[in-house]
C-alpha cells in the first residue's frame, strides 16, 4: 500500500515542460527509423516510422499525451520519436532528474486520471494542461520525490505475474536494430493468405475458438461446434473489418469469421509472429472503413524486414530479437 501522507499538489507547469507536436499528413510521410506518435491509444501511440522533415523536433525519453482522438492517453517513449500536432510532449522540468521507465509508469495513471474532464468538444490544449493540478509524493524540500516514485514501481514490478509465472527481465537487455540492410517484401511473398469462413451469428458455448474482427481478447469472440474450416494453430489472424488491422497470434486450432484473414508461414512461431505482427500493425493506419484491408490490398502490402544474404526474410533474426527483449522468458 502506498503511503500518501506526504503527497502534495503541484501545478502541471511547475514540474513539467510541455511542447505541442507538429502536423505531418500521411501523404507527406517518408518511411524511416523515427517513431511518429499520433493520438492513437494503440501501439504506444506509434502510428508510423518516418524520416522526419527538418521542422519537426526529434525527442527521446519523454512522455506524450493525446490532445484529440483518443483524448487523455499518455505513453512513455525511451526511443527517438517525433509527435503529431494532436499530442503534447511532456518532459520533467528539473534538469537534474532523468525520466526512466519506472518514473514514467508511476506518472502515467496520474496524468491519465484527468482524461474524464476532456473529450472531442473540450480538447486538452496547452493552456488547460498548464493549469492542471497533479498530486505527487513530495520530499522534505516540498519538491516531487522522483526517487520515491522510481522505487515504488521497482517494488511493484517484483510481484508481477504473467500466465501464472513470475516475470524475469532478460539480462541481455534490448538489442539495437540496424535496419539499413533490411529488404522490402510483399505480404504474399511471406505468407499464404486465406479468408475465414464462419458467420459470427452462429456461436456456441463450447467448441473451436472463433476469431472475429475484435481488437481485444486476441480476437476471440466465442466458440463454434460446427465449422466450415478449421485452421491449425501457429498462425496469425488479421481483421479486415471492425477493428481493421487488429493482428494476433493463434497458438491453438481455431475457426475464423469472414472478416478475418489467416496468415501462415512454416517458419512461424510465437517469437517470429510477434515480430511480424508489429510490422503488419505499422501498416494498418493506411486502411479504414472506407478503404478495407481486403486480401488483394493485403497481398500487395509491403513490409520492411531483416533479410538473409540470399535475400530471404531472416526469420532466425526475428526470433532471436524477440527473445532478447526484457520479459521474453514469460511469453
CATH topology of the largest domain: Adenine-n6-DNA-methyltransferase TaqI, Chain A, domain 2
Per DSSP, what share of the residues sits in E-state strands of 2 or more residues? 25-35%
Low-pLDDT stretches are none
Main beta sheet strand tally, sense and closure: 6 strands, mixed
Overall average residue pLDDT: 88
CATH homologous superfamily annotation of the largest domain: DNA methylase specificity domains
CATH architecture of the largest domain: Alpha-Beta Complex
User: Which CATH C-level class of the largest domain is it?
Assistant: Alpha Beta
Distance between the termini: 28 Å
Folded structure, characterized:
This protein is an alpha+beta fold and 331 residues long. It folds into two domains: 7-159, DNA methylase specificity domains (Adenine-n6-DNA-methyltransferase TaqI, Chain A, domain 2), CATH 3.90.220.20; 183-330, Alpha-Beta Complex (Adenine-n6-DNA-methyltransferase TaqI, Chain A, domain 2), CATH 3.90.220. The chain has eight helices and 19 strands. The strands form six sheets. It has a six-stranded mixed beta sheet. A four-stranded antiparallel beta sheet has the order 12-18-15-16. Helix 2 packs across helix 4 (146-157) and helix 6 (270-281) crosses helix 8. The longest helix is centred in the first third of the chain and has 12 residues, at 101-112. The relative contact order is 0.12.
